[in-house]
Specification:
Number of helices: 4
Distance between the termini: 15 Å
Order of helices and strands: EEEHHHEH
Shape: globular
Helix content: 25-40%
Number of strands: 4
Strand order of the largest sheet: 1-4-2-3
Largest sheet: 4 strands, parallel
């Protein structure tokens, strides 16, 4: 099926499947009842310290991905369950950042896909 990423501000689509908000802070300007999602997985968000350090600076992207992956080791059961779910149905990671190339959803998706390649039966 697969893992998709989408800004939380975009309209939901039929193919989104299981929708997971992965930001620690609620997206600005949106009411909670206005965001169609299945779960708000705050535990998958980068720590406040890491988020502030990164500041969406593309020059820090590679280091951010490494530090974020280290943080995600603490919630591996959560993101690995999502990865396994994505093998059966679409999973969409929702994020609020403006930068569509350098954000936690891009990093998490890559980590999940890499894990799936190593752990899914062929």
């Amino acid at each position: 099926m697969g893992i998709a990423i989408k800004r939380v501000y975009e309209a939901p689509a039929e193919g989104d499947g299981y929708r997971v908000l992965i930001d620690r802070l609620w997206p600005r300007g949106l009411k909670k009842e206005a965001v169609p999602m299945d779960v708000w997985a705050k535990e998958l968000a980068p720590s406040t310290e890491l988020r502030k350090w990164f500041g969406h600076d593309p020059a820090l992207w590679d280091e951010f991905r490494q530090r974020y992956a280290a943080e995600l080791a603490e919630s591996a059961d959560v993101w690995q369950a999502l990865a396994r779910r994505s093998a059966k149905e679409p999973v969409t990671l929702l994020y609020g950042a403006r930068d569509e190339e350098h954000n936690d959803a891009v990093a998490l998706k890559a980590l999940m896909e890499q894990w799936l390649r190593r752990h899914q039966p062929r």
